[in-house]
């Protein structure tokens, strides 16, 4: 004897799946059939109740007036059937148009999703409703916009990396081939130039590696520790002390003690990148580092006199591979990833970064949250 489970599986397997294809593919058909079934059951129950009540009245009147029951039952049954059919037809037509209005945005959403899969990041048609479907469309449009921005950024990053790698690799290849074939003879100046190109490639790869590390970390609140921020600032400044002295840079610091929530290595990387930025572009021979409590955050500001920065470019300096020198001359700067790393690290600390420029005086600032709700008194 077969088990009930096996019989159930065979029964499902023997169902005419092709005949029920419309049921699997159309939400509109499902909703209409379910609604019509409910309407039909309600009408049937109401009709049976009306008919039974009418038959009861007819029997009473038959006793009083002697009216034959068949003259009463047949018309009553006819009118009940006609009313039921008309009710189902009218309800079906109304329900079709109402439900179609509900399912049409979902069809638009499906079409937009298919286009997104092909790489076409087009938003779905917006709808005015604020219900679940409306919020779903709104969320999809937001996702489409973000993916479009990410795709543009990805293409830009690939293009910038290719541009940054092409020049030093071409120079290295050309000089090495010339040295190998004897076209040119080696000399200290040539070897120094080749060494600079190799250092540029090494720096580019290292900064890309650092940026990739921080983008993949995604620090959570439980990974942020309570740190005395003045210790980080002072220790990082000491690392640059010798280089500042060799460059005759006057250093002024005004650091307020406070405990912050942060990642020690990440914040050291932020300070290091900002100070390296000072060394690359300094023109005034001085740098000022300030740290103070501002509401529920700790704000660090690094100020120096450097290369002119147009006011409309202040927000772009934190973008990947952005450099003020449009010619991408490596003698005037790095590869444009140092400030992008700063922004990524501070974003993961739930802080903010920015730049304030007054002619050629620039103040790069960032904020990180204070520990234990410490605020300025």
Instruction: Report mean pLDDT, rounded to a whole number.
Output: 75
> What form results from the Cα inertia axes?
elongated
Q: Strands across the major sheet, in which order? A: 2-4-5-7-6
- Low-confidence spans: pLDDT under 50, at least 5 residues? 1-17, 326-333
What's the CATH C level of the domain at 222-373? Alpha Beta
Decide which structural class fits the backbone. Answer: alpha+beta
| Residue fraction in strands | 5-15%
Q: What percentage of residues falls in helices of 4 or more residues?
A: 55-70%
DSSP summary: helix tally: 10
Q: Total number of β-strand segments?
A: 7
> What is the end-to-end distance?
84 Å
Please state the second-level CATH architecture of the domain at 222-373.
Answer: 2-Layer Sandwich
Query: What is Rg?
Result: 38 Å
Order of helices and strands: HHHHHHEHHEEHEEHEE
Largest β-sheet summary: 5 strands, mixed
Provide the CATH topology of the domain at 222-373: Heat Shock Protein 90
CATH superfamily of the domain at 222-373: Histidine kinase-like ATPase, C-terminal domain
